[in-house]
Specification:
Helix content: over 70%
Structural class: mainly alpha
Number of domains: 1
Distance between the termini: 41 Å
Number of helices: 10
Radius of gyration: 18 Å
Shape: globular
Strand content: under 5%
Order of helices and strands: HHHHHHHHHH
Largest sheet: none
Length: 258
């Protein structure tokens, strides 16, 4: 087999294997989440109308980027430029939660069993995809120094994911694809604000620009996975914890640790 032939073979193998893992992730999450019938309906929340939610996200994103010009509070986690992203999601998420505190009160019930199950599922997915990517494409296996940063990154991402689930409402609040499009619109506004920070405020967070395509892909896959968790558990907390762990794991793979 020629060099070009081997390269084509490995590329196809990598793509097929990755697609296979993505396809299998859905049924795995359905089993891990435990099913809807065990969850109390009280945790479902009404969606915030897009005409209200989108301006909220846009305003909070812009103000958070401006505020981070004063300093990056999470520098101590020592994830190069990932600390900036974590700080953004932490303070932006807290601002959105404060803005929507009345809805947050409705969603205060905590389904501990589902949260623990989906947290374990998220870690399993990180291990599976990390092992596959490490073997075929990129050094994606999380080393001990990276795992030690996981709790801090997870806690930083959690408020935003909680706020996002509250703004989106329950799975019954809108058509599934409309709900997904709304969630991705939130992330698009976030990224526009971050890009504005790079090009207009000269924040220096250039990796946000260079890794935009990768983040776009992970945001889509993450949202599809979180949708499964939310549908099966009807739990704001479980969906938020699952999403925050996935994003923390991705950031620890893609950003250098210092």
């Amino acid at each position: 087999m020629t060099h070009g032939g081997r390269r084509t073979f490995f590329t196809r193998s990598f793509l097929l294997g990755t697609v296979g893992l993505v396809v299998l992730a859905g049924p795995f999450l359905v089993e891990a989440a435990g099913g809807q019938q065990e969850v109390e309906i009280a945790e479902e929340t009404p969606a915030v109308r897009p005409a209200v939610a989108l301006p909220q996200v846009a305003l909070v994103s812009v103000l958070t980027v401006i505020a981070l010009r004063l300093g990056v509070p999470l520098r101590f986690v020592h994830v190069f430029q990932g600390d900036y992203l974590a700080s953004f999601f932490l303070f932006g998420g807290l601002a959105l939660l404060a803005w929507n505190w009345k809805i947050l009160r409705v969603s205060r019930k905590i389904a501990v069993g589902h949260i623990l199950a989906t947290a374990v599922a998220a870690i399993v997915l990180i291990l599976l995809f990390g092992a596959w990517l490490d073997l075929t494409f990129y050094e994606a296996w999380l080393t001990i120094p990276r795992w030690l940063r996981m709790p801090g990154m997870f806690l930083a991402f959690l408020p935003w994911h909680l706020a996002e689930e509250i703004l989106l409402g329950g799975e019954n609040s809108a058509n599934r694809w409309v709900r997904t499009a709304k969630a991705l619109a939130f992330r698009a506004l976030v990224w526009l604000a971050l890009m504005g920070g790079v090009f207009l405020l000269h924040t220096g967070e250039i990796l946000m620009v260079l890794l935009s395509v990768y983040f776009g892909l992970i945001f889509v896959l993450q949202r599809l996975a979180v949708n499964v968790v939310r549908r099966e558990t009807r739990s704001v907390g479980a969906a938020a914890v699952f999403g925050a762990i996935l994003l923390a794991g991705f950031c620890l793979v893609i950003f250098p640790v210092t």
